[in-house]
Amino acid sequence: MEKVIMAAKAANNVIGKDNSLPWHLPADLEFFMRTIEGEFLIAGRKFFESIQGREVFHEGVEGIVISRQKDYQSPTVLVAHSIEESFQLAAQNGVQKVYILGGGEIYQQSIELADRLIITEIHGEFEGDTFFPDIDKSRWEEVSRSDRKKDAVNPYDYSFVVYEPAILSLLD
């Protein structure tokens, strides 16, 4: 099963503040929603319950929410209690590819297990309380980059970047 991490992060690795994005970047939101449309999603409970999470996990979306709360239930998605259990549940349901959407703890637990990273890099630093883990350049190789300039709608320069495992790291 292919495991894809998708995130938007600032230059200082901030991905969130108070269970929300600390920036407004419509082009990234459009790219994000287009990329995950029809895909099987995995997210942590805090993201799932956030405003953005409620938009992403609308009716009909298949996915798994990860919660340490043993009695946590959702009427709309499956529930797992670890990243490993979420992968097992997805595999049991015949899923070929999952998109891991965060938040910070979920990214930290899954980055070494992922097959691809799709990252929007916002060219600026923001205050926040949730962070994306450092991308180890000996483990990950940048395979694609599309740089974008700020405009009337998108107030920051940003880049869409895809990372795949570095060839040398596969030999370890």
Structure characterization notes:
The protein has helices spanning 26-36, 45-49, 51-56, 83-92, 104-110, 167-170, and strands at residues 2-10, 14-16, 40-44, 63-66, 78-80, 97-100, 116-122, 130-131, 140-148, 158-165. The chain is an alpha/beta fold. The chain has one domain (2-170): Dihydrofolate Reductase, subunit A (3-Layer(aba) Sandwich), CATH 3.40.430.10. The strands form two sheets. It has an eight-stranded mixed sheet with strand order 5-4-3-6-1-7-10-9, with helices on both faces. A two-stranded antiparallel ribbon has the order 2-8. The model has no long low-confidence stretch (mean pLDDT 95).
Mean pLDDT over all positions = 95
The largest pleated sheet is described as: 8 strands, mixed
Give the domain tally. 1
Our Rg estimate from Cα atoms comes to 16 Å
Q: How does the overall form come out from the CA principal axes?
A: globular
Low-confidence sequence ranges: none
Order of helices and strands: EEHEHHEEHEHEEEEH
First-to-last CA distance: 21 Å
What would CATH call the class?
A: Alpha Beta
Chain oligomer state: single chain
Residues in helix, %: 25-40%
Total number of β-strand segments?
Answer: 10
Q: What is the SS-derived class?
A: alpha/beta
Q: Helical region count?
A: 6
User: What is the percentage of strand-forming residues?
Assistant: 25-35%
- Across the major sheet, the strand order is 5-4-3-6-1-7-10-9
Q: What is the name of the CATH architecture?
A: 3-Layer(aba) Sandwich
Kindly identify the CATH topology: Dihydrofolate Reductase, subunit A
The CATH homologous superfamily is termed Dihydrofolate Reductase, subunit A
